[in-house]
Design brief:
Layout: E1 6-9, E2 14-17, E3 28-31, H1 41-61, H2 67-80, E4 85-86, E5 90-95, E6 98-104, E7 108-110, E8 114-120, H3 127-140, E9 144-150, E10 155-161, H4 167-170, H5 175-180
Parallel strand pairs: 3-10, 8-9
Antiparallel strand pairs: 1-2, 4-7, 5-6, 7-8, 9-10
């Protein structure tokens, strides 16, 4: 579809010039390398439904909306596909067996097995986003999550696996220190 118009309200006269608009091709980058080996059949099916919902939103609405709008679009599409999800799921921050704080996370909890974090207008998913999702996965005792970025120029979908805890690091020792013990 080619559409566009430029209106100039100058001092002397109004001038209208038609300018053709050509929408850019949709760029999608997906990476499931970190989760593909650890998915169950049910998790694969959930991930496929989530992926279809995200791609459908991108195709119909394109990119350029803010994070709140993208989140509402994903929620509406998941409801349409009859996928159960929870918005603003509470997470307990615990230390020494005691709850320090309870807060509600922004990512969606899908069918109590998958976390989906939605970003917008950023063309790059950074380490902070990955670390945040891994912290949420650990707190909820889940295995996998997805970060979706409705960026300025491309849609990104990245699968995230819960961080593995190295037994030496969890004991406060490095592997080289543990080998000398």
């Amino acid at each position: 579809m080619r559409l566009g118009m430029l209106v100039n309200f100058g001092l002397q006269k109004v001038q209208i010039e038609r300018i053709p608009f050509t929408e850019k091709a949709r760029a999608v980058r997906e990476n499931y390398d970190y989760v593909q080996d650890s998915l169950t059949q049910h998790e694969r099916a959930m991930l496929a439904k989530l992926r279809d919902a995200i791609l459908n939103i991108s195709e119909i609405h394109g990119l350029g909306y803010g994070e709140t709008t993208c989140r509402k679009l994903v929620e509406a599409e998941l409801e349409f596909q009859q996928v159960r999800f929870q918005n603003r799921c509470p997470i307990e921050v615990r230390y020494g067996g005691e709850t320090i704080r309870v807060f509600k996370m922004k990512p969606l909890l899908i069918e109590n097995r998958l976390i989906c974090d939605i970003n917008a207008l950023n063309d790059k998913i950074d380490f902070y986003d990955i670390a945040k999702i891994q912290s949420y996965l650990k707190a909820l005792n889940l295995k996998i999550g997805v970060i979706v970025s409705f960026g300025k120029t491309e849609l990104q979908i990245i699968g995230i696996r819960a961080a593995r805890i190295d037994p030496f690091l969890s004991a406060g020792l490095s592997q080289s220190a543990a080998s000398t013990v």
